[in-house]
Amino acid sequence: KRELLLTLKNEKGITLDGKKILTYANIGDSKDLAAVLQNGAEGIGLFRSEFLYLEKDTYPTEEEQFRVYKTVAETMAGKRVIIRTLDIGADKQADYFQLKKEENPAMGYRAIRICLTRTEVFKTQLRALLRASVYGKLAVMYPMITSVKEVKKIKQIVEEVKEELKQEGLEFGDMEQGIMIETPAAAVISDLLAEEVDFFSIGTNDLTQYMLAIDRQNQELDEFFDAHHRAVLRLIYQTVQNAHRAGIWCGICGELGGDLALTQLFAAMGVDELSVSPGNILPVRKAIRETDTGKIREEQLKKWL
Ligand code: PEP
Ligand code: MG
């Protein structure tokens, strides 16, 4: 079976009626790069940069980060690599950040909220990313966005960083900038957010947690956790439609993206990219190639939404 799948390694995810859906990889460590290549990923859709921070007992320097991002960009040789900026807090803690203990960490001081208030930490990462983007097709993606105001602020900081690099005579490249849609607020205002960025990537793990108000870590709630809840699937569809109306692309990088029961639905919705763990790339690609969106569209939308 694995041999059969491997014949798809150099193929693309194109539906029977000719619609292309990119199959990208999620990685949480540069050690995962071998698996990305072995499974023929067309790019990296989610590079969880937290590991750079979690494996150390002090902040990773600009140079350390630059080297890692440059290696990934070069290894992927012109294929798109989407690096998510620091998503720490909640379940991911590093002592040297000295974050206060919180009653509700999942709804607390985490991810972009830390970056927008500790801008030196954020700027160090942005500098490393911009400099590394000279060596490949890097894109940057921001987690836990809830408002247009945050995105405007981020873009302003990116412009400041570029200006600083220019002043210092350091070379930097162009990066697409996208956001994760992983809060219900972001999904609901995705029409407005789409005007500000180059792409969306839907983080279904957090989106489901916040939409259903069910802690994603609490296994005792499993019986209430419906990964296929219509509320979540409808929100995904609205987000894809809002992205396309504004002329940007929209992918999915949460676990749901690799759920083969939903591949036909996502194709019917017009999702542009599915970013999944390396082992899921070829099965998802196979499912895409067996789908005729023209035929199943109405039926799939009716069944799930
Ligand atoms: C998500 O929330 O769906 C996601 C991809 O990010 P993480 O699982 O790292 O929170
Ligand atoms: Mg998330």
Summed up:
The protein has 14 helices and eight strands. With 305 residues, the chain is of the alpha/beta class.
Number of H- or I-type helical stretches: 14
Query: Strands across the major sheet, in which order?
Result: 1-2-3-4-5-6-7-8
Strand tally: 8
Question: Looking at the structure, what is the overall shape?
Answer: globular
Instruction: Assign the structural class, choosing from mainly alpha, mainly beta, alpha/beta, alpha+beta, or little secondary structure.
Output: alpha/beta
Q: Which cofactors or ions or other ligands sit in this model? A: phosphoenolpyruvate, magnesium ion
* Rg, Å, rounded: 19 Å
Portion of residues in beta strands equals 5-15%
Break the fold down into its secondary structure elements and pairings.
Elements: H1 2-6, E1 22-27, H2 33-38, E2 44-48, H3 50-54, H4 62-75, E3 80-84, H5 112-117, H6 119-132, E4 137-142, H7 148-167, E5 176-181, H8 184-188, H9 190-193, E6 199-202, H10 204-212, H11 230-245, E7 249-252, H12 263-269, E8 273-276, H13 281-289, H14 293-304
Parallel strand pairs: 1-2, 1-8, 2-3, 3-4, 4-5, 5-6, 6-7, 7-8
Helix pairs in contact: 4-6, 6-7, 12-14
Structural summary, described in words:
This protein has 305 residues and is α/β, with parallel strands linked by helices. It has helices at residues 2-6, 33-38, 50-54, 62-75, 112-117, 119-132, 148-167, 184-188, 190-193, 204-212, 230-245, 263-269, 281-289, 293-304, and strands spanning 22-27, 44-48, 80-84, 137-142, 176-181, 199-202, 249-252, 273-276. An eight-stranded parallel beta barrel has the order 1-2-3-4-5-6-7-8, surrounded by four helices. The radius of gyration is 19 Å and the shape is globular. The two termini are 32 Å apart. Bound molecules: phosphoenolpyruvate and magnesium ion. Phosphoenolpyruvate (PEP) is lined by residues 46, 48, 87, 182, 203-206, 253-254.
